[in-house]
Amino acid sequence: YCLINKEYFCCCNISDNYDSVGLTADARIIINRARVECQSHKLTVEDPVTVEYITRYIATLKQRYTQSNGRRPFGISALIVGFDDDGSPRLYQTDPSGTYHSWKAHVIGRNAKSVREFLEKNYTEEAIATDKEAIKLAIRALLEVVQSGGKNIELAIIRRNKPLQMFSAKDIESQVVEIEKEREESEKKKKKSI
Can you give the residue range of the structural domain that contains 60? Predict the structure, then answer.
């Protein structure tokens, strides 16, 4: 699950800027092939790949496997995130069929529909204007489907030219407590107005 702001990504369950749902072995194959393509492109063109270029490469690879004899299609959907040369963040999703789409916020996996509906209602540029607001929106979205509070949530922020920043369980739990307090206060206000 990922949100985009102008300067950073707020991502949950992410590894090496690539989050996937499906067969882990297929994910490893795709990641390795994508790394080789990135290196080959860098040697040939002398520029790093764009996020769209590597997404298109992965989608094409998946598409080829859907049409070839003797091979099964890759059983994996993926979120691919990164920054273009101009610093603008990009988020793409690829399907097992080989199609890809660009998003501002997206989710894949179990209960994705519930989280997607939450994001459609609550995602705005103002809602993710700061790190804190984006993190809060990401956690609120995941709390729609996670029953055990912050225990089953992993959260990371990716900034341009900086390493992936993972949040500790303690930081996530403090955000969950804050969100729950806000929910209780809003429910009390609703009851008073009735």
Answer: 2-193
21 exposure class (CB count in 10 Å sphere: 0-12, 13-18, 19+) = middle
- What are the C-alpha distances in Å from 2 to residues 42, 67, 86, 120, 185? 27, 30, 20, 13, 28
Residue (of 112, 110, 77, 116) closest to 94 by Cα position: 77
Block residue for tokens 């993710």: 128
Q: What is the pTM of this model?
A: 0.81
Domain count, the chain: 1
Residue-wise pLDDT tens digits, 5-55: 544 444 443 334 455 677 888 888 888 898 889 889 888 998 888 899 999
Residue 116 scores a pLDDT above 70: yes
CATH number at residue 24: 3.60.20.10
Positive/negative CA dihedral, 58, 63, 68, 71:
positive
Rounded CA-CA distance 46/161 in Å is: 18
